[in-house]
Amino acid sequence: MKKPESMVVLTGAGISAESGIETFRAKDGLWANHPVEEVATPEGFARNSQLVYRFYNERREQLMSEEIKPNNAHSALAKFEHDFGGSFLLVTQNIDDLHERAGSKNILHIHGELLKMRCSNSQIVFDIRESFDFDTHCQCCRSPGNLRPHVVWFGEMPFHMNQINMALGACDIFVAIGTSGNVYPAAGFYQNAKINNAQTVELNLEETGSTFDTHIYGPASQVVPRFFEELLTL
Ligand code: NAD
Predict the structure, then answer these.
(1) Distant-in-sequence, close-in-space partners of 211: CB < 8 Å, separation ≥ 6
(2) Atom 7 in ligand 1: which residue has the minimum CA distance?
(3) pTM of the prediction?
(4) Residue 95: CB partners within 8 Å, gap ≥ 6?
């Protein structure tokens, strides 16, 4: 492999699995107990907002608990970003903050963040570490009922797409970690990068059926540090 100068890394739920946060599609994962159309669509929110508030409040409470910490894979990415001399963009589908806690800096949350909420009227985004619901008064409109989780639901537009597309067009290596490749547009990023002649690498626990140039299988906490340490030695 050639020494890269410009790199885009995409992470999915698999990188946080060993930190204790369930992925969505595992047999015992989140979707098994919470149908996607109920908790991750605008229609589900309109139908039963209390259920949706509760779902994200529980996820936030779990994320803030002492047991949840970044693992070796998050730390390896932060170290690589620090030591790598080239251009580096980390795009995550995850709504947790484990990359930031590990020290990652140039990071875009394409599907939003669990520790943020947004006013549906003004679109102003606020930090939130506690629970909130329909009765919580919005800090900008001072009325209840306007605040929603700052997460991208199915059918909504992901964030930062222009910036990501520009980086995909300019990178010489694209690496996807712990993502099943089921959720678009992120699932198509490696093809965009390939069209622009980037090398594409997938690091996952198991085969996903995607046609990356290189596949490395194993738990993220083991394969990610190894891969990125080797990349620094090129
Ligand atoms: P996914 O659940 O569809 O796929 C997870 C992938 O990770 C699978 O391919 C699985 O094989 C792999 N995996 C599981 N454990 C792993 C490990 N220890 N090491 C390496 N790989 C491992 O998740 P996705 O592709 O990210 O897409 C689902 C959507 O779910 C995303 O949009 C994301 O926003 C959301 N989500 C986020 C979180 C989070 O913030 N931590 C958690 C669950 C889901």
Answers:
(1) none
(2) 14
(3) 0.95
(4) 59, 109, 111, 112, 113, 114, 151
Q: Yes or no: say if 7 and 106 are a contact pair by the CB < 8 Å rule.
A: no
187, two tokens: 């699932």
Q: Residue 45's pLDDT is what?
A: 97
- The pLDDT value recorded for residue 109 is 98
For 115, other C-beta atoms within 10 Å of its C-beta total 17
Instruction: Tell me, yes or no, if 74 is annotated catalytic.
Output: no
Residue nearest to atom 4 of ligand 1 (CA): 180
Summarize pLDDT for 124-152 with one digit per residue, the tens: 999 999 999 999 999 999 889 999 999 99
pLDDT per residue over 85-138, tens digit each? 999 999 999 999 999 999 999 999 999 999 999 999 999 999 999 999 999 999
Q: What is the rounded CA–CA span in Å between residue 82 and residue 96?
A: 21
CB atoms within 10 A of CB 203: 28
Cβ 20 vs Cβ 14: under 8 Å = no
Q: Which of 133, 139, 137, 154 is nearest to 52 (CA)?
A: 133
Among 23, 92, 151, 184, the mutation site with the greatest number of ligand 1 atoms within 8 A of its Cβ is 23
pLDDT at 35: 85
Rounded to whole angstroms, the Cα distance separating 181 from 14 reads: 11
